Amino acid sequence: MSTKETEQTIALAAIFQAAELVAGLAKSGQIENRHLEPLVSSILMVNASKTVDIYGGEWDYQSNLSLGKNTVHKALSKDRASVNPETLRYALSLIHLESKLAKSPDMLKSIGSKISVIEQKKDMYDSVLHENMIAAISGMYQDTLSTLSFRIQVRGESRFLQQPHTANQVRAALMAGVRAAMLWRQLGGKRWHLIFKRKALINALK
Predict the structure, then answer these.
(1) 159 lies in which domain range?
(2) pLDDT averaged over consecutive 10-residue blocks of the chain (206 residues)?
């Protein structure tokens, strides 16, 4: 097992954790903040020296991405049927959306500028999950990624998705998922790896 494969599984776990949170918000309007916080923090982590640092550091990333790791393991193994089909759809859609973003340097530059502005505001609040922080990240998603030709269609209970805070959480999770998908690609991850490198990725997850 290579170090690169281990790093790839970290990014993959983050993608699937974002996808699982979007599915949960769409279905019930509720998620555990402990699963969302490391993803939101990762959006603002632009100069990490190591992949693990993006999600809390060597000793924290495994717990911070536990939901995503478990979901990926099921998706790549014989337990795939137990994974919410919407979660799988969102995960693949995040990877596809990031591939569109990679071809838009102007949008990448715009996102970088917006992240800098949001990061400067972080110290004003007691948590990256403060509603103003989530709203700012949601606005960034709306102004950028939601304008691309490919859009992720979130399906669920309209009574939850129409609530402003829930909608903002969904977009923040999607933004974090795209950030993870970018990391996955930068580490050499390919969509076909999810089919033909399943055994290697499962071993790396362990």
Answers:
(1) 3-205
(2) 80 97 96 97 90 91 94 87 93 96 97 95 91 97 96 95 97 98 91 74 76
